[in-house]
Amino acid sequence: MKKEQLIFLLCAIFTTIAIVGIGISISLGSTLVFSLSIFIATICCGVGFSLRKKLTQESSN
Asked: How many domains does the chain have?
């Protein structure tokens, strides 16, 4: 497995855990966990998308 694929896998796992955390926080009524889960999911998705854009630009050059 390439290093880039491992990073994509970790981003996907953390994003999935954060989305599950959103569901759990809604069921528990916890605003703090909900906010943290949204923040973590946004950061992980942003990292994944920016890495994919960077790799696409490098491969086209």
From this structure: 1
Q: What is the pLDDT of residues 2-36, one digit of tens each?
A: 887 899 999 999 999 999 999 999 999 999 999 99
| Residue among 49, 39, 46, 1 at smallest CA distance from 19 | 39
Contact 7, 23 (CB under 8 A): no
Q: State the pLDDT at residue 1.
A: 76
Count of positions (residues) in the chain? 61
Q: Which domain holds residue 33?
A: 3-59
Which residues 6+ apart lie within 8 Å of 52 measured at CB? 8
Alpha-carbon distance 32 to 1, whole Å? 36
pLDDT for residue 42? 96
